[in-house]
Amino acid sequence: MSSNKAPKNCVFYRNQNWIYPRIEKGEGIYLIGENGKKYIDGCSGSAVANIGHGNKEIAEFAKGHIERIAFTHLSRWTVDSIEKCAEKIVSWCPKGLNHVYFVSGGSEATETAMKMARQYYVERDGNKSSKWKIISKWNSYHGATLGSLSMTGTIGRRKIYDPLLTNFPKISQFYHYRNPWGARTLEETSILAAKELETEIQRHGSDNIAAFISEPVVGSAAPGSHPEKIYFDMVREICDKYDILFIMDEVMAGSGRTGKKMASNHFDAKPDIIVVAKGLSSGYTPIGAAVCSSEVFETIMVRGSGNFIHGHTYAGNPLSCGIANKVMEIIERDKFIENCAVQGNYLMKKLEDLYNYPIVGDIRGKGLMIGVEFVKDQETKEPFDVFSNVRGKITNNCLEEGLVPYPGGGSVDGVRGDHILLAPPINITKEEVDLLYEKLEKAIKKTS
Ligand code: PLP
C-alpha cells in the first residue's frame, strides 16, 4: 500500500518524516538551497566537509587526476597518489603508527581494525588463538555494518539487528555529565571509566580479548564528551598488562577536527591502530583508513602469512587518495588546524552564555567538535521525554534561521539524550562563528 508520505522521487531517504531541503551548491561554510536560501553548514555534513564547500583547488586537482587514471586495484598495482596519501596520514598520526590500510569509509575502517586485531593474534599465536572479542562502550557509535555495529553500543541502532550481531563486551562510556558513578570531577570519571575496562577484561579472561576500541572525543551518541589524559594513560597500561590491542576510532574526531591533527594528540594517547575517515578527504570523495603499528603490520605481513585476509574493491582508490592528500596539504599550508583551535575556543566561550536558557544542560567538546545537551531541568539534569523531540525542534528552528546542526541522540539507561553537535568547517572565520552563534541562540530562544 502506498503512503501519502511517499517521496516524489526514487531516493530511499533515511526518514520519511523529515523534509529534505534541496541543495543547489556549497560555498565555503555555506550550503545554498534551490530557493537561494543560505545555510551555515554548522556540522560539515557530519564532521566531514572540514575545508568547506566548492574548493577550486580540489576541483582542478580532481579533474586532472580523473583525466589521467580511472581506477587501479590495490591487490596488483600502486599509484603515486596512494603512496603519498599513506605517507601524509602517517605523518599526522601519533608516532609508531606506520602502515595505512585504505578503505572507503568509517564503518569499513573500524571493521578493518577489528579483523586486523583478530588476525594479529592468529598470526602471532597460531590458529588456536582464543583472542577475538572486542571490548567497546555503551552508547558508542563505530559504524553500521554488522562488525562495526557489534562494537557499537547505542541500543537504538542495534535493537532490531541483534540476532545478526556478535555480542561483544561493553563498558561504560566517559560521559561525565551523566556518569553512572556520581563522580564530581572529569578526572574521577576518567579513572572510574578506565577501571571498568580492567574489570571487564578479568570477567571475560584476557585470553579471549583481542582489542579495546574507543573514540577520543565522542561523536554522535554524546557529542563532545571526552575524558582527561589519565584515561588513555590507564587504557594503555591495562592493554599492555593484559596483552590487548588498543584501537582509537578517530573517524569523526580525527583529521584536524579538534584542533590537533589527530584527537589522540590532546591526550598523548598511544593506540596500536587508529581509524580515520569522514574529514580525511573533506567529503570530496569517500575514503577511510586503518593505520597500524609496525608490530601489528610485521606480525601479519613480515613474520606471518604476508596476507591480510581482507579487502574492498575501492580500497586505495587513486582519486580518493589523491584528494585526501591534497586536503591535508591545504590544511597544513593554510594553518586550518591552528584556526580550528582558535575558533573552537572562541565558540566555546560564546556558548557559555547559552546556560542562561534553562533547557541548556551541558556544553563540552574540543576544537570545533562541540556538543550541546538539552534538558528539562538544568539543576537535576532530568532529560526531556522521548516524545517531546526537543532536538528535532531545535534542529528545525536552526534550519529556519539558516543553520544546520547535527542532531545527535544517544541513550543512557534507555533515556534518549537531546543533543546537537556543532562541527562547522575548520576554516571558519571569527565573523562566521559570531553569525553561527547568533542563529543558534535565536533557535534555542524560540524552542525554550
Ligand atoms: N566511527 C565513528 C566515531 C563515527 O562517528 C562514524 C560515523 O558517524 C563511524 C565510525 C562510521 O563511519 P561511516 O558512516 O563513514 O561508515
Automatic annotation (TrEMBL):
User: Which InterPro entries does UniProt cross-reference here?
Assistant: Aminotrans_3, PyrdxlP-dep_Trfase, PyrdxlP-dep_Trfase_major, PyrdxlP-dep_Trfase_small
Keyword Transferase part of the UniProt annotation: yes
Please provide, alphabetically and separated by semicolons, the GO molecular function terms listed in this UniProt record: transaminase activity
Q: Which UniProt keywords apply?
A: Aminotransferase, Pyridoxal phosphate, Transferase
Pfam name, any one = Aminotran_3
For this protein, the record's PANTHER family field holds: AMINOTRANSFERASE, AMINOTRANSFERASE CLASS-III
What's the family? Belongs to the class-III pyridoxal-phosphate-dependent aminotransferase family.
Q: What is this protein called?
A: Aspartate aminotransferase family protein
